[in-house]
From TrEMBL, chain A:
<keyword id="KW-0436">Ligase</keyword>
<keyword id="KW-0067">ATP-binding</keyword>
<dbReference type="GO" id="GO:0036064">
    <property type="term" value="C:ciliary basal body"/>
</dbReference>
<keyword id="KW-0547">Nucleotide-binding</keyword>
<feature type="compositionally biased region" description="Low complexity">
    <location>
        <begin position="453"/>
        <end position="466"/>
    </location>
</feature>
<feature type="compositionally biased region" description="Polar residues">
    <location>
        <begin position="519"/>
        <end position="552"/>
    </location>
</feature>
<dbReference type="GO" id="GO:0000226">
    <property type="term" value="P:microtubule cytoskeleton organization"/>
</dbReference>
<dbReference type="InterPro" id="IPR004344">
    <property type="entry name" value="TTL/TTLL_fam"/>
</dbReference>
<feature type="region of interest" description="Disordered">
    <location>
        <begin position="493"/>
        <end position="569"/>
    </location>
</feature>
UniProtKB/TrEMBL annotation, chain B:
<protein>
    <recommendedName>
        <fullName>Rab-GAP TBC domain-containing protein</fullName>
    </recommendedName>
</protein>
<feature type="domain" description="Rab-GAP TBC">
    <location>
        <begin position="313"/>
        <end position="436"/>
    </location>
</feature>
<dbReference type="InterPro" id="IPR035969">
    <property type="entry name" value="Rab-GAP_TBC_sf"/>
</dbReference>
<dbReference type="Pfam" id="PF00566">
    <property type="entry name" value="RabGAP-TBC"/>
</dbReference>
<dbReference type="InterPro" id="IPR000195">
    <property type="entry name" value="Rab-GAP-TBC_dom"/>
</dbReference>
<dbReference type="InterPro" id="IPR042507">
    <property type="entry name" value="TBC1D19"/>
</dbReference>
Amino acid sequence: MLIISIRLQQDYSSNLKFKTSFRNCILEAFKRRLWKETEGDDWDIMWAEKEWIHEVLDHTHLQSNQKINHFRNHYELTRKDLMIKNFKRYKKNLEREGKSEEANNYNFFPLTFHLPSEYPIFFEEFKRQSANSDTKTAWIMKPIGKSQGKGIFIFNKIQQISQWKNTLRYNQDNPQAEAYIVQKYIADPLLIGGKKFDMRIYLLCTSYQPLTLYLYRTGFARFTHHRYDSEDISNTYVHLTNVAIQKTSDNYDEKLGGKWNLQTLKLYLMTKYGQEKVAETFYNIQMLMIRSLQAVQKIIINDKHCFELYGFDILLDAQLKPWLLEVNASPSMTSNTPVDFELKCGLLDDVFTIIDLEKVLTGNEEQIGGFDLICKGNPIKLPINSTFTTYLGAFNNRQQQLKKIAKSTAIRLAQTYSEGQMKAIEVGSKGQKEKEEKDKQMRSSSKGPQAMQNGSNVNNKSNNLTKQNTIMKRNTTNLPALGTMQNKSNVKRQPLQNAGQQQQIQQSQSNSSKKNNPNEDSMLSANQKLQKLTQESKINQFQPYKQQSQYNEVMGMGGGSRNLQKNEE
Amino acid sequence: MQQLDNQEILMKLKSQKQFWDIKKKVKQGFSDQQKIGINDIQKFAQSCEIEDQLIKLISHILKKSKKRETLKEDQIEFLNTSKIKWTELLFKNLDIVHQKAKNQEEDDTNTDSKLYIYDEKNLLAFLQTFKQQQPSVLYQNVQFQSNKLLNINIPLKSSQQILDKYQYILLQEELPEEKINKIRKSIENEHLDIELEKIAQTYVPNGERCLLYLKYFEFDHQETVLQQNFAKLQKECQNQLFIDELLEIDGHEISEDTFYFVFQEQILTCLKCFIRDKSIKENIRIQLQNGMKKEHAEFQLPVAGFFPFKNISKYVAPLCYLSTKIHIIYALFKEFFCRYFCFLHAISSEYNSILSLCMQIEEIVSTRSPKLFHHLKVIGCDTLKLIIHQLIYCFVGDMDPPHILTIYDQILGHDSLEILVILCVGFLNKYKPKLLLAKNYENVQQIFQELREDKFQELVQFAYKQ
């Protein structure tokens, strides 16, 4: 067996080719997968810039196996003005259809107008708002075509935009007129340490028909470097969290990059507000993301070649209500800290796994790496007795999960292979037709080694990671799962991180798979089977430490007994 | 200590909601009787536990009315003189630090060295000198005692007593949702110290902790006062002091911790206000240093009455997880420091003092894990040297903030720092197998440089493991 696997691994020199003009985490993630870079058109996957899509994609014929990282008209969601237009339209449609309840859920974006086209309506609204409230309402102006916080400014007097209005930009007839959107500024953002922050959360869409969405467990909160002051609207450092802006600030600390990962943020919020409130907030964030995509589902041109990784920018206000600031089609994959680098490389690696160029997945996986399937046609509801309302901000167990997938895939493919062989022997000397069929089987099973390779890759990576972890010490503290607890089974759901335990599970897996009826086996999907196996072993092996899990339960922490068990062994 | 007369007690009773509840209950009990005698009331009160409640209420009022005076003199004369020596030493250190800072200003290239007046190691080293200075008549002939770092004859609680006191944490069951909600409600309604302490001892739900602390410190209706006081102090901060520089350096260090870098500015503001707060001197339970008059203003003790030390930021940091309002963070920090953390820096024979806690740890480790105790001694890294950082800074930086806050709960719940003894013992037990393999001090340091994750419950469990 060992010899075969070694031979297979040797055979495996990735045939997959990638093309990208990026030279950051994207390139690194490709390289880590041992894929080859190509300059020509023979790529299997291309990580292109948005401009390339607009200019070239429409005139290019893609091979059936080729994958590209944007949908043709992604700007319907990712351009600030179009996004709002589509949301408004979808909301209206829902109201027209009598689905007022769902329509009311589209309240996660601030009041927005397009300038210059909607200037008169905006002006009326501005006057109305100013008359109604004692304090001056602040508005934020964002140029439509720019990113990284360029050209953004905040104002509360109409005179402040008159200057802008008089320039070339406002003149509608002027071909150079630059379009802006103006939004009511969220004046009571949640402040942590007196600082404003927003969240960057990653969502992967692999298809718009049916709408298939994967949400990444880890994201981060970006802090401004200056204390928030709602009065001082001219200082952009106070109001804008964009790393590009904050980098230019005097007291920008490169080491920390002014970021918290989502787990730390969740820990803070749970300590301060209690877990119920935080669970609700994170669930609302997940629903906000699904609703955003639902609103453009019928507008975006679906294409089986395309997938897209969106970076959602979300702001929490003082009442913990999430607000959507914008959706980025090309979230920054440049890292400013080692932690950031690992996060982004891991994220991209999981994207590549989901896209499944190797064609080894069943398509029914609910979690792949750090991504959880949250929508497939319809939003996926977690079982009522589930411990989590959303996995967003929960412990990112991608390493363990990938190992699991690799293992289940290997089992499945090995089975297909042996079944194929059995058939081949049975059929043996029969006619030519059957022979061809057998060949087919063989071809499909030759994908096995890739899965194995995947698995071994993961192992190597995890080794590297632990090394780095020790260097970075507390900066990379693996936070425990921070999902919201509703029942005690949380602890059981935790990945078993203990090597000894894993060994035991492996043993029990091999034992129970021996016992299982092979017919029954083939009927179960690989994933289900694996689940069944791990469940069985967990019941036998797992002995939660009651006293300890009491605290863990509050924090939604699992695996707390990890160190204890190690020592006992 | 001032005493209240009966009239005053009654007045205070009337201001309590619980008093009126009790009265209502009594009235209901006698609604159909016309003549009521004192004996009847007494019997009735005994039968339905009203008497107990009333006693609790009165004792609460009496306790609150007691003004705790700052402990200035220790019962043990030798410690008093030591405290003066310690203060002298700190003044000397201040001079050195001041000189260093000046040099640094002149020479920009050398800004790496971290400046502080003293740290936990300095304090332990000072405590260690006691052994030589005190004629230890009592232990002269006792060989086994000499293994310990600290051998001072001060009254100590038996270590078994401490172990027994916290053993209940081991037996805590997981709480169902309804119980947690019940606790939430009782925090909202309850005002009695005893009840709040009981909750803190057992379980404080997240999200309610700030309210519980505020109620316990009787700040719950004083937000505007807190805000005003804080604003005043902030104004005073405009006058720069040399100590501010040291606090800023300290703030940089806390900003290296992922969990706290966001709060660096708030922490610094709190500390700057803290050293300028005149009310600290009155409220602090124990005097940390004995002031000396010097000519130059810069070389005097800060208004708070003691020198800030290295890592003082660590005490404030976890409290930033409780409130977004800085005046509340400050008020909580002030109370926690004046009531509890001050003892960690005081040379005293009090049960809570660093001296007692250290001796307790040595006692427990040397009797329950003699092998480890001896091994650490042999490799030149005494038990106390190993644990002093965690002990003095309440494990801040070693555990995640929610776990630290659980420690704070316990401190408040028992009005005592003894939980730290348990955690330190647990900490040593947890790493015992690794520590026993260590051959020198560098090995030991390596163990703690590795990525590790300590948890409150876990350390308590280890503490009781034989």
